[in-house]
Amino acid sequence: MEYSSRTVLVSGGAEGIGYAIAKALGLAGMNVVLGDINKPSLQSALTQLQELDINCTGLVMDVVKADDWRRAVDLAISQYGALHALVNNAGVGGKPGPIENNTLADWQWCIDVNLLGVVQGVQAAVPRIKQAGGGFVVNVASMAGMMGVPYGGEYTATKLAVAGLSEAWAVELAAFNIHVAALCPAFVSTNIHLSERNRALTHGQTTTPDEIELPDPDSVMSQVVTNGINPDLVAQRVIEALNAKEHYIFTHPNYRKAVQQRYAAIDAAFERAESSAIVGHLCNHPLDAFVPQ
Ligand SMILES: NC(=O)c1ccc[n+]([C@@H]2O[C@H](COP(=O)([O-])OP(=O)(O)OC[C@H]3O[C@@H](n4cnc5c(N)ncnc54)[C@H](O)[C@@H]3O)[C@@H](O)[C@H]2O)c1
Q1: What's the 74 CA to ligand 1 centre distance in angstroms?
Q2: For this structure, is 155 an active site residue?
C-alpha cells in the first residue's frame, strides 16, 4: 500500500468500523493512533492490534472537543514523527423515530459528534498532513449521505453534510497531495444501534452507561444493524478504494438503484426548471466559479 510506514489517526477506532479500518491499515504497514471516548474498549483494541504486531498507540478523546483533537495529533507526531492520514470515523446513530420525538438536545448530540467532530478532526489534522507532504482523509459518511432516510432526520443531515464536505475538501486539498474520500456504507454489523451508550460520556448526562436505556434487541434498527455486513469487509474495501484513489467509497452495490432514483428525481427537477417560463432563460448562462483570492 502506498501509505505503508506512514501514520494514521482513527477516531472512534476502538470498536466497529473504526477498529476494522485501523486493523486493516495497520496490517498494511501504517502506524496507527486510535482515539476513542470509551477507555475500556480502547485498551482492549490496542491490545488486539499489538498482538497483530501493529505499531499503535491511543488516547481517550471526545471528538467534540478541540483540545482532545490537538492532543491526538500531538501524540501521533511525538510517537511517529509525522501525521499523514486521518480516518474521521467516530459517529453515533442519533435517535431514530418520528420528527416530533426528537428534541433539540437529540439533534445537538448528533450534529456535535457526526458533523462538528469531523470538522474539528480536519482542522486539527490537515495542517500537519500538509506539513508531512500529503496523505489522505477518509470521512465516514453513510448511505444516508446519499439519500434522505425517513425517521432518521438528524442522522441524514449530518451524513449528507459529511459527504458534501468531503467533495469540497477533495478539491481544496488535492493541491496538497491529500486524497479525500467519503465512505458511504449501508448497514454494517456494529454497535451503532447502541449509540446511546456513548451519549452520557459526551453530552454530560447524569446517567451512568449502565443505566442507559438501550433499544430492544428485536427492534427493526437492532435487526438491520446486526444483520449488516462484517466491518472487516468495509475495511478491506477502504484499502482497495484508497489504492484506486476513489472519492466515494461504496460497500453496498445493491443500493445503486436507490441512489440512481434520487439522481433521476433531481435531474427531472432540472428539466422542469429548464422549461420554466420564469427561469428557463438561464439555461445557457456560464457557471459562476467561486475562487478565493
Ligand atoms: N454500522 C452501520 O451500519 C453504519 C453505516 C453507515 C455509516 N456508519 C458510520 O460508521 C461510523 C462508525 O460507526 P460504527 O457503526 O462502527 O458504530 P460503533 O458504535 O460500533 O462504533 C463507534 C465508535 O466511536 C466511538 N465514539 C462515539 N462517540 C465518540 C466521541 N464523541 N468521541 C470519540 N469516540 C466516540 C465509540 O466509542 C465507538 O468505539 C459512524 O460514523 C457511523 O455513522 C455506520
Answers
A1: 23
A2: yes
Ligand 1 pocket check: which of 9, 33, 37 to mutate, most ligand atoms within 8 Å of Cβ? 37
Domain 7-284 class, CATH top level:
alpha beta
Cα–Cα distance measured from residue 18 to residue 15, given in angstroms and rounded to the nearest whole number: 6
Name the band, by pLDDT with cuts 50, 70 and 90, for residue 29.
Answer: very high
Query: Furthest-apart CA pair in the chain: how many Å?
Result: 68
pTM score, two decimals?
0.94
Contact residues of ligand 1, CB 6 A cut-off: 11-12, 14-18, 36-38, 41, 61-64, 89-92, 113, 140, 142, 185, 187-188, 190-192, 195, 198, 202, 225, 228
User: What is the distance in A from the centroid of ligand 1 to the CA of 222?
Assistant: 15
**154-169: pLDDT as tens digits:** 999 999 999 999 999 9
CA distance 109 to 196: 10
Gyration radius (Cα) of the chain, Å? 20
